């Protein structure tokens, strides 16, 4: 995609969902995504030439979210208030499935968010998270095994992982 507007329109929802899930819906996720797309726009010639512009935006958004969180923790004494993005519907994810994904360990949650929600390849996900593609597969396998086990306990409730319709 050569035009930033087309890139933004095509990827904004997937990036937001991925960041929201990867950060456990922490406040500021929406701002981090907006900041990442703003930076991508300012550097569009270089970002467009990147092997995977979506991965660049995701990594930038996750880094921005972490920086925001660190600044907030330094400014506040105690835990930050619960507010904002946690109350929003993260792009149509079933609430029970979303809660199960949010309960996964951080790296597994990030891999699920990037591989399944943002639809990145294992290689793109690995580059974005600075881990190998094989490690991406391991984290995804473990996360899906955990989610399947939890879903087995809620069988008949209508919540299914992608590709599990015939199981």
From TrEMBL:
One of its GO terms (molecular function) is sigma factor activity. CDD domains: Sigma70_r4. Keywords: DNA-binding, Sigma factor, Transcription, Transcription regulation. It comes from the Bacteria. Residues 95-147 form the RNA polymerase sigma factor 70 region 4 type domain. Belongs to the sigma-70 factor family. ECF subfamily. PANTHER family: ECF RNA POLYMERASE SIGMA FACTOR SIGM, RNA POLYMERASE ECF-TYPE SIGMA FACTO. GO terms for biological process: DNA-templated transcription initiation. The lineage of its organism: Bacteria, Bacillati, Actinomycetota, Actinomycetes, Micromonosporales. It holds the Pfam family Sigma70_r4_2. InterPro entries: RNA_pol_sigma-70-like, RNA_pol_sigma-70_dom, RNA_pol_sigma70_r2, RNA_pol_sigma70_r4_t2, RNA_pol_sigma_r2, RNA_pol_sigma_r3/r4-like, WH-like_DNA-bd_sf. SUPFAM superfamilies: Sigma2 domain of RNA polymerase sigma factors, Sigma3 and sigma4 domains of RNA polymerase sigma factors. Residues 9-74 form the RNA polymerase sigma-70 region domain. This is RNA polymerase.
């Amino acid at each position: 995609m050569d035009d930033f507007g087309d890139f933004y329109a095509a990827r904004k929802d997937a990036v937001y969902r991925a960041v929201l899930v990867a950060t456990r819906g922490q406040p500021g996720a929406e701002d981090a995504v907006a900041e990442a797309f703003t930076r991508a726009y300012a550097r569009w010639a270089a970002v467009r030439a990147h092997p995977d512009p979506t991965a660049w935006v995701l990594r930038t958004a996750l880094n921005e979210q972490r920086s925001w969180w660190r600044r907030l923790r330094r400014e506040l004494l105690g835990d930050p208030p619960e507010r904002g993005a946690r109350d929003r519907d993260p792009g149509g994810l079933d609430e029970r499935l979303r809660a199960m994904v949010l309960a996964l360990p951080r790296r597994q949650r990030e891999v699920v968010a990037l591989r399944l929600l943002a639809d990145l390849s294992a290689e793109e996900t690995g580059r974005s998270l600075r881990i190998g593609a094989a490690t991406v597969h391991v984290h995804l396998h473990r996360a899906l095994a955990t989610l399947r086990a939890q879903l087995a306990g809620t069988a008949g409730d209508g919540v299914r992982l992608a590709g599990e319709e015939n199981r």
